[in-house]
Predict the structure.
Amino acid sequence: MMNSSSLVTLLVAALCRPALNNALALPALSSSPRAGRRMMGALMSHKLSGSRVSFSLTIVRGVRGGDDDSDSDSYEYYDVSSSDGELTDSEDDEDEPPPSSDTGPSDVDKDKDTELIQKRAALSQKSRNFGIATALWSSLFFDSILNKAKRNDLFPSIVQGVATVVPAATLASGFALSSCVAFLMWREFEITSETVGGGESKKGDSFLSLSSVNEEGAESEKFAMETRQRLLFHLILFGLINLGAHAGLLFSNQAPFLGMSAAIINVHNTLACLSALIEEKSVPELIKQAISWPLSFFRSSGREESDAKKEGTITFLFRLSAVAAWMRCIPVCKSLFALAMGAAAASDTIHIVDKAREISLTVASLARLTLTAGVAKTLCAASASSADSIRNHRFFATLSGMLSMIFFGLGGTMLYSSSLLNISLNKAVLAEGALLAVTALVAGYNSISCFNANKGTA
């Protein structure tokens, strides 16, 4: 049976264990009765104050003076104490309040930085898409002029030699204009990705971005947004209608238009424009704009209405060009319907092929007219603005200069082939060529005057 000294030692160890967890190491008890007799507790006092514990303990270890059974043992005393501030009860940790979960300023800054990074990444992706779209539509422009293999399957058999000048110029001008607008959208998104959040662009063509208009106020920012949306919408129309130019394959496999590569290009570019427009405009608003698109050329925006009395020659000619391009779509659609009926009724293979190729060229001409109307409407809205920061902005000056060069090329070709070469005496072609030439002169003058006005403010 275990003696009384061992029981006392065990009792002391059990009572003091919570307080002596890391402060006191008791000697291990041996299973031998002799070692048990050498250990005994002499004194323990403890005082409880709230959750604080203070204690002192004296451990007496017996030192054998002689034989194991001798009663004359001497003792060594070890005093271990701790202050109130060093040892605490476990309840203290439970009573401590949990750390505050409030979001500090650093977390708010991190959220803003994350949002800014995501916005820059989205704009950079848009800029890459439009950079590719610019290159792809430019390739179709050169195909329609320089690729002899594709040109051989592009025009009807009755249209050969110099007679292909006007159809080729009409087709090429559409792709040239789409490439120019896609280029401006590319620069717009890339420069905006650098200036968003108050940054500065280090690119040499940073003056092309409409983001500088946003600094003029909420109304100017709204105008810049409407400009982007209008141009993107007409690029989508251009790509979708050009996909319809491959409908000639439904009548004959000898009417491939510009090949399947052109179809893939138009699909890619249309999706790129559509994704960019959806981020700026909801789908219901986009559908509403598509439905009301024909009437948009006959009504003015709020800014234009306020400046209606100040409308000058430049604004009038841009508006006239937009309306004329839209009105030209009506006879083109009628001609397209007649060609489709003729191709369906034809029995001769040669006539079927010719009708199918004419259908493709007519659809491509329709796409060009819709894009021309949108660009002219954009320049009309900019020139009618009373704000110099919008009217003389380099974005519109560059767009006006590009439109001037394209109209000079197409209008000059129509006038030259009709009046001097006597290839066609069609009054509609002559009238369109004359209108394009006049608009080209006005657009060129507008571009130069805008750049000169910017020199004075630079």
